[in-house]
């Protein structure tokens, strides 16, 4: 998929979600935040990523140029992802830059910021009591990216998202996704994860639309939400959610 185009589309959807909303509206998925704070977080995050790409090094988010919106909040928010896309085009998509997982190609930040916007756009919709509309391809890629992030984290002393010997199968019910809509996630030692696209029997299986699976594994909807079908040991899913705060 074209992550750059999807980033702009998701940003535009977020901007539309908040355009006529009260900035002081609480965001339940992000306790303590208002829509105003969510917008600043997303817009500043895109500009922060752009600064990292341009320098190749970590940048303090508080020192990012243009990190706060002026009077034109909508224009500032819509411009933010373009600063990142411009930065990647300037330095080259394959140039290694700093990320919180170690050096990655500059284009890595486009996909990361896409799914930051995807999930926080859903947060804004849920805060307003609106439905969450995500293209299945984008939502499925968000599920994959989230699993990849968790699998790439160095194993530490704390337990990983799954207990040793347990597996989780996620199955998106969207017809057009094919193999890209199924994930098998497992661990041998209870600390590091391994995963692959495909069908198989897991300790727990979770079925639902790709958008609902994304919302579930990022803790935006509860595990017992009626949009999900959970088969097998539901406690495995509960463990995953308890150990993977977003």
TrEMBL record:
Pfam families assigned to the protein according to its UniProt record, in alphabetical order: MDMPI_C (PF07398), MDMPI_N (PF11716)
Ranges that cross the membrane: none
Keywords: Isomerase
Domain Mycothiol-dependent maleylpyruvate isomerase metal-binding: residue ranges: 6-125
Keyword Chloroplast: no
Protein name: Maleylpyruvate isomerase family mycothiol-dependent enzyme
InterPro entries named in the record: Maleyloyr_isom, MDMPI_C-term_domain, MDMPI_metal-binding
GO MF, one annotated term: isomerase activity
Domain MDMPI C-terminal: 137-238
